[in-house]
Amino acid sequence: DAKTTQPTSMDCAEGRAANLPCNHSTISGNEYVYWYRQIHSQGPQYIIHGLKNNETNEMASLIITEDRKSSTLILPHATLRDTAVYYCIVGGTSYGKLTFGQGTILTVHP
Amino acid sequence: DADVTQTPRNRITKTGKRIMLECSQTKGHDRMYWYRQDPGLGLRLIYYSFDVKDINKGEISDGYSVSRQAQAKFSLSLESAIPNQTALYFCATSAPVYNEQFFGPGTRLTVL
Q1: What percent of chain B shows pLDDT beyond 90?
Q2: Per the CB < 8 Å rule, is B99 touching A91?
Q3: Between A108 and B95, whose confidence is greater?
Q4: What is the number of alpha carbons within 13 Å of residue B74 lying toward its C-beta?
Q5: Residues of B contacting chain A (CB within 8 angstroms)
Q6: 3-class SS of residue A80
Q7: Do B34 and B103 meet the contact criterion of CB atoms below 8 Å apart?
Q8: Comparing C-alpha atoms, which of B43, B26, B42 is closest to residue B34?
Q9: What is the distance between the alpha carbons of residues A47 and A71, in angstroms, rounded to a whole number?
Q10: Distance CA A23, CA A67 (A)
Q11: For residue range A16-70, what is the model confidence (pLDDT) as tens digits?
Q12: Alpha carbons B77 and B69: distance in angstroms, whole number
């Protein structure tokens, strides 16, 4: 699986958009980008995934660059409950195993 | 009701004891996983199973064993617990097409 690089921590004001970047320069053609988050020792929560097109669901948007070497997770209106560790993971769908790195600690403040 | 459940949620045991952590899911997924998380570290894969007859070692399987009793049940055993197995353990399932993983609430295990 391709390796990802994320900032260690980020801050965001409540109500503003949180933009979390991820670099995955060694991603291969059939690998997807997945985002998960973990709120204080709870089980990780799936957020969104994409291959090459931008994706949006009720939780977030995922923007993937044209060369697929980086992506950005966007939480459009961050709330205090979005404070969590956010993991960007790259992997194939057939293999199943996802490798979790250190992630980005997002702190949303009032 | 939660889609992925784990029992027990907390467990304190002594060195050398055998312990089993259980995981059940109602999502109907074939793929199931056991992860371990230590403070300040990401999740590490212990074992995974793609169906009832399939068991695979992950990156840190030493000292652990698993049993896939049915599609919905995947158990993790520590045959002889040791203190460095103190950690937070998560079970997960994954959807069949795009492999999104869905996690249980975790079991906090302490080995004294």
Answers
A1: 85
A2: yes
A3: A108
A4: 32
A5: 4, 31, 33, 35, 41-45, 48, 50, 58, 88, 90, 92, 94, 97-106, 108
A6: helix
A7: no
A8: B43
A9: 14
A10: 11
A11: 999 999 999 999 888 899 999 999 889 999 999 999 989 999 999 999 999 999 9
A12: 13
